[in-house]
Design a protein that fits this description.
Jelly Rolls; 40% strand; 7 helices; 6-stranded antiparallel sheet; mainly beta; zinc ion binding; 15% helix; PMI_typeI_cat; metal-binding; 322 residues
């Protein structure tokens, strides 16, 4: 069956956002047409935003179509068993021309109860950072629902949140419940659970082109927030031509591969693998064929492709579920 499937790329699903810009075009060569494109959804099974294959003989079919047709071969036996025919992760590139709203995501239990959805544990890899760029992540000191609500009412929530200066190559892991915001001047690769549930708790009193402020979810967030301090920034090694684990959690494992030459890959068929090219150019040799990728490309390796090789000079993120 492995001869049927091949490395998949998908049409980017582009999202205009009040905080978006044009770097997804200038920096990552995405086909954006507006000046406020904030997100390129690279690989998505979110209802209403399901990715469509962009290459090969299955071009034009959706991710849902091919999972339906080849569940074990695409997802892997373990993932098919655990998640049925749903793709459990969502991959994006983001361009923050302005600060994103301060927000929080609910955990699996709360998201299931309120929205019949997965929660949203996520991670960020910083691809590009302007001078003085920063992110907001977690509380400076242990907080409480009362302090949080008071700070929202008095519009000084930034005073109790942690601000971290950020540079290219930084990695942040954001378990559900972590209050956070991507700051202006950052291009981010984001890996997360398949969920689009976000509680927006402060939006800098911004107004859109029509003079409207965006909806806030201050009260919904109270039960979702982790009020303890959190250590979200991850350090990682950079040994050439092999995976260096950055984040290993129940929802996904992400490694950094500094590729300069060739890296042989052997998988067990239990799970798909996704590669995000965050710098440079590389190729995948699989079943006697070569597939080429550049910075900003995302590729899904079906679980049935168990032996292949990466080659080139690039920085690549490798993601799977262990």
């Amino acid at each position: 069956m492995s001869t049927t499937l091949y490395p998949f790329q998908f049409e980017p699903i582009l999202k205009d956002r009040i905080w978006g810009g044009e770097k997804l075009k200038t920096f990552l060569n995405k086909p954006i047409t507006s000046k406020i494109t904030g997100e390129s959804w690279e690989l998505s099974d979110v209802e209403g935003d399901v990715s469509v294959i962009a290459n090969g003989y299955l071009k034009g079919k959706s991710l849902a179509d091919i999972i339906n047709e080849f569940p074990d071969e695409l997802l892997g036996t373990k993932i098919h068993n655990d998640f049925g025919k749903k793709f459990p992760l969502l991959f994006k590139y983001l361009d923050a021309r302005e600060d994103l709203s301060i927000q929080v995501h609910p955990n699996d239990e709360l998201a299931k109860k309120r929205h019949n959805s997965f929660g949203k544990t996520e991670m960020w890899y910083v691809m590009q950072a302007d001078e003085n760029a920063r992110i907001i992540v977690g509380f400076k000191e242990k907080s409480s629902p009362e302090e949080y609500l008071k700070s929202i009412k008095e519009k000084n929530i930034l005073s109790i949140l942690n601000s971290v200066a950020t540079k290219q190559g930084d990695v942040f892991f954001l378990p559900t419940g972590t209050v956070h915001a991507i700051g202006a001047g950052l291009v981010i690769a984001e890996i997360q659970q398949t969920s689009d549930i976000t509680y927006r708790i402060y939006d800098f009193d911004r107004k859109d082109a029509n003079g409207n402020t965006r909806e806030l979810h201050t009260d919904l967030a109270v039960e979702a927030i982790n009020y303890n301090t959190t250590d979200t920034q991850k350090q990682y090694s950079k040994t050439q031509n092999q995976p260096n684990v950055m984040v290993d959690c129940p929802y996904f494992t992400t490694s950094f591969i500094p590729l300069d030459g060739k890296s042989e890959v052997v998988k067990d068929g239990n799970c798909f693998t996704v590669y995000m090219c965050v710098d440079g150019n590389f190729s995948i040799e699989s079943d006697g064929e070569t597939f080429d990728y550049k910075k900003g490309d995302t590729v899904l390796m079906p679980a049935a492709l168990k032996a292949f090789a990466l080659s080139g000079k690039a920085s690549v993120l490798e993601i799977y579920i262990s």
